[in-house]
Amino acid sequence: MSPFTPLRLGALCILTAAFHPVPSAPSRIAFASKRDGNWEVYAMDADGGGETRLTTGDGQDRFPLWSPDGTRIVFGSERPTGWELRVMRADGTDVRPLCGRIVAKGHREWSPDGTRVALASSRDGDVEVYVARADGAGLARLTTSPGEDRDPSWSPDGTRIAFTSTRDGNAEIYVMRADGSEQTRLTRDAARDEQPAWSPDGSAIAFVSARDGNRELYLVRPDGRGLERLTDDPAADHVPVWSPDGTRIAFQSVRGDDYDVDVVRVAGRARARLVASPGYDGMHTWSPDGARIAFVSARDGAEALYVVSAEGGRPRRLTAGAVLDPRWSR
Fold this sequence. Notes:
The two termini are 26 Å apart. It contains no helices and 30 strands. The radius of gyration is 19 Å and the shape is globular.
């Protein structure tokens, strides 16, 4: 039997790898907390135990992101000259700078092989896409345009990077080779197209667009064909995050001042409200086996860390104090 099963969405066909949960594999959640008086990076077991403080700095340390093998974490560190991207071992040792003047809240990703990190930085005067070697030995600028280039997302094979650019006067989705060559525009619309996220099997790129009058999720092939609308709801939908098996996307759903987390199945577009409360629910991240989602919620008065089944149900609170930027190890 083939390990891939095709899921057809009209003109768009997505191949999803056979999904086998790994119940015995340990996993950790990294996050930022200011419980000790300053925003620092922490990590804990997925059941809420084994909490460890990983950074100790004068400025804020936030936005942790695990390497594919779980041995390292990149994070943003506030310096007098702006935000800097740093990398450390998973135990908080061997901290090294990678790039200065990063877009602190911008999207960045490890390469699939764990050797590089794609990011956006204004270090040369304009926001452009860079790739930093994870060992701190080099930094390459990939884009040079009069607009802003940001939100890089690696293809699963590591050969290409999708990104958002305003070089043609409006935010559109582009794709380039991992060395910055062959930069190709995929979308063309008067509305903003942004936040590209490559599917785990490489056959599609999810992105956010208001082209139909409201921010919704769309899919497009890496060659620019097969454009399809994935969500259709009065809420504003953004921040798409693929499940590890590529069958679902978790995303932020916003209705006025109410922020919730929804999940849509790529095949059939079935949409479900995963977590909802009168306040903020967001910063969602999938567990490695796709069975759970960690998120931040202000439902009990503080923006604490919660975990919920990907099928829904009652969330479990893991932290007592304020938490931001959770990321599950792979």
